[in-house]
Design a protein that fits this description.
The structure is a homodimer of 415-residue chains. The first copy, chain A, is an alpha/beta fold and 415 residues long. Helices cover 40% and strands 25% of the residues of chain A. In chain A, helix 9 links the parallel strand 13 and strand 14. In chain A, helix 6 packs across helix 7.
Chain lengths: 415, 415
């Protein structure tokens, strides 16, 4: 089954606006085996909108429109959809009464313009909206399902989940899609590809796609089945093979990011942590404290941006900084050891590097980062050279530092 | 003039993919006065694609398609566009020769399938692609401009800038759009609206829209003119009035974010800074070090997540924490004063609060945050109660702390 999504509103056609509703609907439809073959964003213009509805209804089994159901003259979704299928609209008495009651509740008089929110396409079923004044509509025309939903995600989502998805799923009759995302932090996309391609190419269901991100690679496994259980079992079969080919490399299969995974491991093992950051400037600490519960393991963080702060707070020997440079394996080790000692924690991480764009030399280029770990999980140190701009270098350094800790927590050798 | 954008490719219709190309093109077209009235993303399906081209060409003056120009059987943009306008395709001899030469350069034999990349719609002009094998095409049909461009942004963008935009701009003949964004960190959307609505409602050009974000509000002023200078002058006239109505409140008119603005002020005044963070967990330091150049002013940061670290590193009196609680005005003040003293800096910021979701009490609910400043710019302290989830609370706290510092740097009273 094919679906198309129409997002209505001139305000959606400015740079920088992303399509929250379309992405939400696409994801949910995939899970019931319905593929979105086109999505369109249209300005508030009756002719344009009518043409968009006609086009979508000529191609797709299911058409879902969001937005344009408000009371203003720019809200034209009802009229356009009715025109596209050659039907009229009627003013629904019970919707009108509901609108009046809603206004009365807030002691306001309803302006006549609002009455248009009670207009319903001939033959359409009203989809109640408990969070706003714009009701949705559902109409079947020439074997195709058409849904009109309000634009605010907070109103649209529960209506879609409760009133649209079950109808579409029933029509789609049985085919269920499931996706699992495997995340890897310490390998390049091509290394991951090389390790798993010979395996996943022998599978047609699930299908596999590889996505590369700064600091991690994702394997998306999508399987179809007659039930959720069957789809999940198919995914698990392939995922098992991937785990064997990427031993210890997959840090998450359930959507969690690396700081969340590391935080959970520290809590489980009742270990305390301190971080000492130079070029990442607090990014590791900020990421570790993004999920709730960090107070159980994070004792403190040091943002030792200056040389003086490395000496004062972490007890790094000024002569060592002078001799080896602030960006060096020796100083990274000394920072980690100093953080462990002064904070009195089980484990400490340290990062020092050159995030750029300035400050690089032929010997120590932009992107050079030293990562160190000290404490009860053993000492580790790594020299890395990350590509990209300042933001990417800092993000990759924070990922590599957390991955170093994750591997130590699991008793895996350094990557 | 109206434009529509068609993004081609089934891989674009999965959840989580954003429309990089469409957003890029929308922004550039706005600058030459062309409004994007619809954008559509279509799967690799000849029938769907042909229908999408027909629809767009029936509505818009300019239609720009990206993607689907590769050599595989899924690459159907050429065929679909030709079918939609009722023309054939011809195999272009010089494109074919260029493809063969490209393969020869890498010592590879060109498979016959690649020849299709030399297919050009009858009457179309070839748009060279210096960064890849997929050439673009430009054809005029019934007074409408149709462009086919490759999908990879690195190939598409220079072709669009160099070969498409000048043609469209010439056709749009003179109307130029410019946008300026005014940013405000310390006021609610409704307070900003109340202050400036009486003014901007007297203007039709520029038009004004208000966007609310967690931690800041944006005023988007968009003006049309016959030249860039005229559009800018119109914007400046309205912006001047807004500055009068929002004295000292606008922190940026040039796209810079608050940490960048504060960093520049500190550098100008040659002041050094330390930050002491509890609930924000390093977020303020991480944001201040995102732009390059932070080493000129940021001496260090303290992520004092535990009570012990507040005592050890900042010299906060344990009895004070016991008496007033870690989340209190007194402790915030003591943290700022301790950070200033131990770091030996000109100014220090401190933040302590309850980011949630747990840890709230009736007296000290989730979202309660104390912000303090100590040092040569004077002492300031603020109690705030931020709405939203953990992420929003932390972000708003970091914004409010930076705004406190910005106002002090400019000699403005506390907000």
């Amino acid at each position: 089954m094919k679906a198309e999504i129409i997002a209505v509103g001139s305000e959606l056609l400015v740079p920088g606006r992303s399509e929250t509703n379309a992405l939400y609907i696409t994801g949910k439809l995939r899970e019931v085996g319905v593929t979105v073959t086109a999505r369109v964003t249209v300005a508030d213009d009756l002719e344009l909108l009518t043409s968009a509805f006609r086009g979508a209804l000529s191609r797709a089994d299911v058409v879902i429109a969001t937005g344009g159901l408000g009371p203003t003259e720019d809200d034209l979704t009802r009229e356009a959809a009715a025109a596209a299928i050659g039907r009229g609209v009627r003013r629904d008495a019970s919707l009108l009464e509901g609108l009046r009651a809603r206004f009365a509740r807030y002691n306001r008089v309803m302006a006549p313009v609002n009455e248009k929110q009670a207009d319903v396409i001939e033959g359409a079923v009203v989809l109640p909206n408990v969070r706003g004044t714009a009701a949705g509509q559902h109409v079947e025309t020439e074997g195709r399902l058409l849904f009109l939903l309000p634009g605010p995600p907070v109103e649209m989502q529960p209506m879609f989940d409760g009133q649209v998805l079950p109808l579409v799923a029933e029509r789609a009759a049985g085919a269920v899609l499931r996706t699992r995302v495997l995340r890897i932090a310490s390998m390049s996309e091509s290394d991951v590809e090389q390790a798993v391609a010979p395996l996943y190419k022998t599978f047609t269901n699930p299908g596999t796609t590889i996505l590369s991100n700064p600091g991690h690679v994702e394997l998306h496994l999508t399987a179809e089945g007659t039930s959720a259980e069957e789809a999940e079992a198919r995914i698990e079969e392939l995922a098992r093979g991937m785990r064997e080919r990427l031993p210890g490399r997959i840090y998450s299969e359930d959507g969690r990011d690396l700081p969340t995974v590391v935080g959970a491991l520290l809590r489980e093992r009742k270990l305390t942590l301190a971080v000492a950051e130079s070029c990442t400037g607090g990014l590791v600490a900020a990421r570790l404290t993004e999920p709730a519960g960090a107070s159980e393991f994070l004792e403190r963080g040091y943002v030792t941006y200056s040389n003086r702060s490395k000496v004062d707070l972490l007890g790094v020997d000024p002569a060592l900084i002078e001799r080896a440079g602030a960006v060096s394996e020796e100083v990274a080790r000394a920072m980690a050891e100093g953080a462990r000692r002064t904070a009195g924690v089980d484990v400490a991480l340290a990062i020092t590097g050159i995030a750029g764009p300035g400050g690089g030399t032929p010997d120590k280029p932009v992107g050079l980062v030293y990562l160190a770990m000290a404490g009860t999980l053993g000492e580790r140190v790594r020299r890395a050279h990350f590509p990209g701009d300042r933001e990417r270098i800092r993000h990759q350094a924070s990922q590599a530092s957390l991955e170093m800790l994750r591997r130590a927590l699991l008793g895996l050798p350094a990557a």
